[in-house]
Amino acid sequence: MTPQAITLVELNRRIGRALAVAPGMNNVWITAETSDLHRSGAHCYMELVQKDDAGTTEARCRAVIWGSNYSRIDATFFNATGTHLRSDMKIMVCVSISFHTVFGLSLVISDINPAYTVGDLARRRAEIIARLQAEGVSDLNRNLQWSPTPQHVAIISAAGAAGYGDFVRHLHGNNRHLRFNTTLFEAIMQGEHTSDSVIAALDRIMEHIDNFDCVVVIRGGGAVADLASFDDYDLAFNIAQFPLPVIVGIGHDRDITVLDYVANTRVKTPTAAAEALIKRLGDALDAIVNIGNDIHTGIRETISGARQQLAYYRGLLPALAENVVERNRRAVGTGTAALIAEAARSRIESRRLRLNALGEILDALSPEATLRRGYSITRVDGHAVTDSRTLGPGSILTTFFAEGPAINSEIPR
Questions:
Q1: Of 172, 185, 262, 180, which Cα lies nearest the Cα of 218?
Q2: CA triplet 126, 129, 134: central angle to 5 degrees?
Q3: How many helices (H) does the chain have, and how many strands (E)?
Q4: Which of 142, 258, 343, 369 is the most buried (most CB within 10 A)?
Q5: Nearest 5°: CA angle at 136, between 132 and 140?
């Protein structure tokens, strides 16, 4: 017996009718992550996926927002988050099952809860901050000491960004005419490659670390979801451990990212980042000026005091001189003559004693003293004989003694 069969189209129709009337298949709120989102005409197509903690896809289904609902849903989402729907976003949507005989199963989105997306961003940010705190790195950059004169600035930004232009104009055009040296390290500041691009810029700065005093990461304000790229663990970890103070100027007042919690300084806008640097350098200049003023005041007071003291002594010196002269005059009148006479006598006696001593020395060294000690002196032709080899035959020798007459003798020929 041949089994009775139906066509695939009929089976798919039965599946579609069954799903249409099955309980819990229409107007169901689900959470998922968007993927491959694109628009075609007035309609918006995407895939909804669910991943586990390891990032492995556990479920996947096609989804569509028909043009009749897309404008309303996208506007609602934009008003709450500041961005339009795009890929790689976690969303909460109201869906109904649709089964097409050709295209198969898909989900038709009829509404969206934007608060879920905003909350997911906040949750992920809180998890990253808690992890950085647990690893002990969240406060490292915030506790770095600044250079006293931060003039050499490394900038991470998109080259043509309005925020970068605002920063440079405000910094170099400051009304105090303070001079800064800035170098741009270009990076992607929006989208899925933001984190890797900024980290690469930090690595390039690290190669020239001695040339800079600080790093400024700037981007103009944007949608909350657009700024989600900065809520990244790897990027926050790199900035937290960077050896130079980092200023983060991303977004506007309402925009907060993980980088704001780990950077040394968080400001509202790129212009505010420039103003922070101007203030730091201006404060350093003011401190130097104050020191100079203190030195000038001290020198001026010292000179003034010295002039007063000089004037005092100038008036006092004539009186002092007159007192000295008068005192010496009285001394001369009363005891000076006696002192002069006594000094003269002492001087004469000292010279007499010295002359006597010299006379005794001369007497001890005289020829007469030598003769008295038992010696004799022999002379030839009036000259004392000290070497017998100088004598010749016929020489007449005259010998002198301490007592008695001299004796003459001749050397035989």
A1: 185
A2: 125
A3: 9, 14
A4: 258
A5: 90
- Report the half-sphere exposure of 161 (CA within 13 A, side-chain side): 27
DSSP track, 46-98: EEEEEE-TTS-EEEEEEEEE-HHHHHHHHHHHHHHHSS---SS-EEEEEEEEE
**Among 71, 72, 75, 116, CA closest to 93:** 116
The CA dihedral of 31, 49, 230, 207, to the nearest 10 degrees, is: 160
* DSSP annotation string for 180-229: -EEEEEE---SSTTHHHHHHHHHHHHHTTGGG-SEEEEEE----TTGGGG
333, 336, 344 from 328: Cα distances, Å: 9, 10, 20
Query: Which run of H or E residues covers position 357?
Result: helix 270-365
Concatenating the DSSP letter of every residue in 288-331 gives HHHHHHHHHHHHHHHHHHHHHHHHHHHHHHHHHHHHHHHHHHHH
pLDDT digits (tens, 9 = 90+) for 105-156: 889 999 999 888 888 877 888 889 999 999 999 999 999 999 999 999 999 9
The answer to whether the CB of 208 falls within 8 A of the CB of 184 is: no
Residue with the larger pLDDT of the pair 373 and 70 = 70
Residues 238 and 196 sit within 8 Å (Cβ to Cβ)? no
Burial of 227 (0-12, 13-18, 19+ CB in 10 A): buried
